[in-house]
Design a protein that fits this description.
This protein is mainly alpha-helical and about 110 residues long. The chain has six helices and two strands. A two-stranded antiparallel ribbon has the order 1-2. It starts with a helix and ends with a helix. About 10% of the residues are buried. This is Winged helix-turn-helix transcriptional regulator. It comes from Sphingobacterium anhuiense.
Amino acid sequence: MERDQTEELRALQDTLYFIGGKWRIPVINSLCNGNRRFREIERSIPGITTRMLSKELKDMELNKLVKRTVYPDTPVLIEYGPTEYCRTFGNIISEMIIWGREHRKMIVEDKV
């Protein structure tokens, strides 16, 4: 079967656009680890600002990766959760974690 390099490049660019931001993967990882409220997510990601987290969550909601649920309590309660579509990215994140751990070992061993 012949590969379509143009199509493959387009698919890679789409993926890189999705994960290209510094905070996208940590936000997904936080959501998939059970953090639902804004402050829980924020606390689980060292260095992220309130403004950046808000921007990422809005963008991810527009891209059908996050579901935002508003409960009409007093005060209003808002929870975020990964969509099923977002969860399809889980295996890729797991592989990235494995690769990152191995890469760190390789670099540290090389320095010793």
